[in-house]
Amino acid sequence: MAISTGDTIPEATLVRMGAEGPEQVSITERLKGRKVIVFGLPGAFTSTCSASHVPSFIRTKAQFDEKGVDEIICVSVNDPFVMQAWEKDTGAGDAGLTMLADPAGEFTKAMGRGFDAPPVGFYGRSQRYAMYVVDGKVEIMQDGDAPGQCDMSSGEAMLEKI
Amino acid sequence: MAISTGDTIPEATLVRMGAEGPEQVSITERLKGRKVIVFGLPGAFTSTCSASHVPSFIRTKAQFDEKGVDEIICVSVNDPFVMQAWEKDTGAGDAGLTMLADPAGEFTKAMGRGFDAPPVGFYGRSQRYAMYVVDGKVEIMQDGDAPGQCDMSSGEAMLEKI
């Protein structure tokens, strides 16, 4: 079942590329007692994710800061090496966004948001969404964008809702 | 069972990023009647693959041409979007190497060369190897490099054997 507004985020281990290499991150520990935006997307280095979704949160980062949001996390079913390269390529790291890899799709499956698209080489990838999570509970869920679109799940759309 | 010298390469579909988007590639059709180097590695944007393995075939590409090798193919269990970005980043495309994505690990499994390394976010990835394939049959197999090393499977090591 897909996690939605009012639900508690399920536990899953994500991977962040640290200075010393890949580090395991418990998502429930990371969200505890904090206000966090988590947005999920199909893949690093794909057009809509690189040209629309990530930039929309880079553009709005300062406004989320003003609203008291502690962290903005981007999750994708890629490995931490790819996420690190993409973080540099998009400028997401410099902008203060956190890129978390979900290499086995553990978080994405637990969220009920996996999908396959074999013709483009996607297996167990994440649907596009953005959510506002307060102390581990989903306060706002923005999803339902058509393929190749990033409207509902964009930084600007989320900003209007908070 | 791992495919080795004397074996015929098993059929598998790989994915190449073309001008119009991802294209399916039958490996057996691609190898038929041709002399091809195929090298496999753990992942795009990882250190040994980016700094050693791919550059070793860029350096030796012209010498393989002189020996009548028709194509040099790099295979990794990544999606075609990541492989395209990595092809640009390493200069492999400009050098004339072909990057083929094995997003579901179909080829890597059929080759008997998959491995997992959960701490770094690798699942069903490819061990490091290089092989010289003539008309779909393995003539030379170069593998057995220690993790983080690229000696046996390098372009120079393969060049010496042909």
Automatic annotation (TrEMBL), chains A, B:
Q: Does the keyword Transport apply?
A: no
Which InterPro entries does the protein's record reference? PRX5-like, Redoxin, Thioredoxin-like_sf, Thioredoxin_domain
Gene Ontology BP terms: cell redox homeostasis; cellular response to oxidative stress; hydrogen peroxide catabolic process
Annotated GO MF terms? thioredoxin peroxidase activity
Q: Which residues form the Thioredoxin domain?
A: 3-162
- Source taxonomy: Bacteria, Pseudomonadati, Pseudomonadota, Alphaproteobacteria, Rhodobacterales
| Family (UniProt) | Belongs to the peroxiredoxin family. Prx5 subfamily.
Catalytic machinery residues: C49
What's in the keyword line of the UniProt record? Antioxidant, Oxidoreductase, Peroxidase, Redox-active center
- The EC category is oxidoreductase
Task: Report the function annotation for this chain.
Answer: Thiol-specific peroxidase that catalyzes the reduction of hydrogen peroxide and organic hydroperoxides to water and alcohols, respectively. Plays a role in cell protection against oxidative stress by detoxifying peroxides.
> What is the reaction catalyzed?
a hydroperoxide + 2 glutathione = an alcohol + glutathione disulfide + H2O
Can you name a GO cellular component term?
A: cytoplasm
Q: Which Enzyme Commission number(s) are on file for it?
A: 1.11.1.27
**Top-level lineage group:** Bacteria
Designated name of the protein: Glutathione-dependent peroxiredoxin
